[in-house]
Amino acid sequence: MVKFGLELVPQTPINKIVELSITAEKGGLDTVWITDHFYNRNTYITLTAIALKTEKIQLGPGVTNPYVVNPVWTASAIASLDEVSGGRAILGIGAGDRVTLEKLSIPQKSPLSAMKESVETIKKLLAGETVTLEGKFLKVKDVGLAFKPGRVVPIYIGAQGPKMLKLASRIGDGILINASNPKDFEYAFSIIREAAEGKLEKLDVVAYTCFSVAEDREKAKKKALPIVAFIVAGSPEKVLERHGIDKDKAGKIREALGKGDFKTAFGNITDDMVEAFSIYGTPEDCIKAIKKLLEKGVTHVVFGSPLGAKKKEALKLICEHVVPAFK
Ligand code: F42
Description:
By secondary structure, the chain is of the alpha/beta class. The chain contains 14 helices and eleven strands. It has helices at residues 14-26, 43-53, 71-84, 98-103, 111-126, 162-171, 182-195, 217-234, 237-242, 247-259, 262-267, 271-277, 283-296, 311-322, and strands at 3-8, 31-34, 58-61, 91-93, 131-134, 139-143, 155-158, 174-177, 204-213, 279-281, 300-307. Helix 7 packs parallel to helix 13. The termini are close together. Bound molecules: ligand 1. Ligand 1 binds next to helix 5, helix 6 and strand 8.
């Protein structure tokens, strides 16, 4: 059966995030993912607060990265979260948001090696092994955890590019794909099907969507615009081409966002862009859009920012109308 999750950004105060997570758990959602950027509230502190107030929902960073946070540190953190949550931790890890890394003067060098070496090391540490590695990215000597982790938690890899999708299919338990449109999943599955080599049915393929639901379709759409603007600005040319979006128009939006001119940036968002990069509308519109993703092979849908005009009300619509349509 399809799984459903919630993405929360800890720009929101932790007590509100905990409240939303409790509502998500009561509403039958399976997972909650906390984004990781150094300028927001700390991901693991937020996750611990959620763990202490919930009982069933699985939870984890969505996603952390090995450039800012050493993978050995991540192994200890996720094992601790697993302990405090009674075995509910899931680890989302990706190569990191390039713009954020640039602010810290951290080059995103060899992301494929960084991800491979990090995931393999984390798995070994969680299995109680001692690791020595002279890798391209990670160099560790006789490193092990001084406590016994409960288990090797499921590892989900953030991936959009062809090589990262291939790697994630081979070494991940799941793949978090930052996309909302069936065309992107058709593309992703053309790679995943071949790369997963017999383990496709075990792989949890997650649509990490830009989602906006409201009783009023236009209100939902309006709320999605700022997020769509950032997605357009950050999308590689190939992705823009896939959706028939003019790269000069995308360039204008990128330039305006770079200058902090949000009026121009949001004003240049076209209907095509909103359709390409978000799921929005009434609960019925959203149910139809989710069905199209499931037809492509998606096994897990994460409701991501903005959720809707008002987060609490949007989550209510998700739990009472959207999710029940699939259970
Ligand atoms: N990033 C964050 O920092 N914080 C978050 O909270 C966050 C959430 C999130 C949720 C879902 C999701 O899918 C992604 C999320 N991200 C978040 C972004 C994530 O951290 C990664 O940036 C993203 O998933 C990686 O995207 P990607 O698959 O496009 O990979 C990049 C690195 C890429 O360029 N991939 C290329 C590809 O084809 O897949 C490969 C690049 C390549 O070949 N590199 C060479 C190599 O050896 O690695 C050499 C490059 C060199 O010059 O070193």
